[in-house]
Specification:
By secondary structure, this protein is α+β, with helices and mostly antiparallel strands. The chain has a single domain (23-68, 89-370), classed as 4-Layer Sandwich (Double-stranded beta-helix). The chain has helices spanning 12-24, 40-45, 122-135, 150-158, 189-196, 236-241, 245-251, 261-269, 312-328, and strands at residues 60-61, 100-103, 110-113, 137-140, 171-172, 179-183, 216-223, 231-235, 255-259, 280-284, 286-288, 295-297, 304-307, 333-336, 343-347, 351-355, 365-370. The strands form 5 sheets. A 7-stranded mixed beta sheet has the order 2-3-4-15-7-17-6. A 3-stranded antiparallel beta sheet has the order 14-8-16. A 3-stranded antiparallel beta sheet has the order 10-9-13. Strand 3 (110-113), helix 3 (122-135) and strand 4 (137-140) form a beta-alpha-beta unit. The longest helix has 17 residues, at 312-328. The radius of gyration is 21 Å and the shape is globular. It binds fe (ii) ion. The site of fe (ii) ion has 3 residues, from loops. Residues 101-371 form the TauD/TfdA-like domain.
């Protein structure tokens, strides 16, 4: 029989794939979390071979904003102060008492033992800001952060800038300024995730859609798998320096549009919340660090949607090159391993990072991030500094 002239077939599966693609648009979420994916029962009591959470006060909730009517107002501009500029570059206050200070690789990263971050005085904190800006990421071992009263940990981080309150993530009850990364014990979302994607790599710098994205940033572990769940960092200043002077010059003056909208859509799609209306902001593609004067690439696939003023194909072409350059350059990356008591400190202005979702046996992973905001990204002209 001849086919009908107009044969309309509604393919629900295809529509679903289309809808999913719409909400991703370059954004990729390997660690989907929300009130529906947090199993409080198994977290508080343990489940099967998994013990209860070691830090139940840090279990995520999504209703801290109930008291203010459910939504935060837009973030307001503030005057940022860069403490790294006041640092003694000999780092004598930071490292007094250190038992070991070692580079992780030649191009990025250090590991420090014997220094208790929470005990640093003002001079030590200033040096911390500069040291982290220079090394890009530093793992401090055997810290007491996780055992401090939560407010004390927040107060420590706020020396470096006001806390960013994440628009979608879970936070400890009563402490919205803490961003939690949490997967419950016996969680199966890793298996679900790999049904859909080939890998969990999501290079990004945190919340770059904000007008004043974070600088010196702290992440500490509460509970983690026995192996896996490392975090990878890349030196975005070295990524800039690897480019030819002619190519560097072309990047100067360009601005990229960073968007929170896809993250918000994804949060709503999985039944989570959006506690502040999503924003988009434009930042220079090359930014300068206020303490070191280094220039760094400042684009990431998670949040950048377009080079401002470029047509879509032009923008996609340039951004793909930059993303590939960053992702393939393992010679400017470090893979940092977690251990109980570890606090990783990095400078979000000159690095990108990715979590690695490589354990699928249902072990709990639970970390807390303190995210001081910094200055609005700015650039200085090509060739005017140490670069
Ligand atoms: Fe991150």
């Amino acid at each position: 029989m001849a086919p009908a002239l107009i044969d309309v077939v509604h393919n629900a599966d295809a529509e679903q794939v289309y809808a999913k693609n719409q909400s991703q648009e370059g954004y990729k979420e390997a660690f989907a979390q929300g009130p529906k994916t947090t199993n409080y029962e198994s977290e508080l009591k343990g489940v099967g071979k998994h013990p209860p959470a070691k830090y139940p006060l840090y279990l995520p909730v999504w209703d801290n904003e109930k008291d203010i009517g459910g939504k935060y107002p837009p973030n307001q501009p503030f005057e940022a102060y860069e403490h790294g500029k006041d640092a003694d570059p000999s780092f004598k206050n930071l490292f007094k008492g250190a038992s070991s200070v070692e580079d992780i690789t030649a191009n990025i990263g250090a590991e420090v033992k014997g220094v208790q971050l929470s005990k640093l005085d003002k001079a030590g904190k200033d040096e911390l800001a500069l040291y982290v800006a220079q090394k890009k990421v530093v793992a401090f071992r055997d810290q007491d952060f996780a055992d401090l009263p939560i407010q004390d940990a927040i107060d420590f981080a706020e020396y470096f800038g006001p806390s960013h309150i994440h628009p979608a993530s879970g936070a400890p009850k009563g402490y919205p300024k803490v961003h939690l990364v949490h997967r419950s014990a016996a969680d199966t979302t890793a298996k679900d995730y790999f049904e859909e994607r080939t890998n969990s790599i999501t290079w990004h710098s945190d919340v770059t859609y904000e007008q004043q994205p974070p600088g010196t940033t702290f992440l500490y572990i509460l509970d983690g798998p026995s192996a896996g769940g490392d975090t990878c960092f890349v030196n975005q200043a070295e990524a800039y320096r690897r480019l030819s002077p002619e190519f560097q010059k072309r990047l100067h003056g360009l601005k990229a549009v960073h968007s929170a909208h896809e993250q918000a859509q994804n949060a709503l799609a999985r039944g989570s919340i959006v506690r502040r209306d999503p924003v988009a902001n434009t930042h220079p593609v090359v930014r300068t660090h206020p303490a070191t004067g280094e220039k760094a690439l400042f684009v990431n696939q998670q949040f950048v949607r377009r080079i401002a003023g470029f047509k879509k194909e032009e923008s996609d072409y340039l951004l793909k090159f930059l993303y590939d350059h960053i992702a393939y350059s393992q010679d400017i990356q470090a893979r940092v391993k977690w251990a109980p008591g570890t606090v990783i400190v990095w400078d979000n202005r000159v690095t990108a990072h990715t979590a690695i979702l490589d354990w699928q046996d249902g072990q709990r992973r639970h970390l807390a991030r303190l995210t001081p905001q910094a200055e609005p990204p700015y650039e200085t002209p090509f060739g005017d500094s140490s670069n």
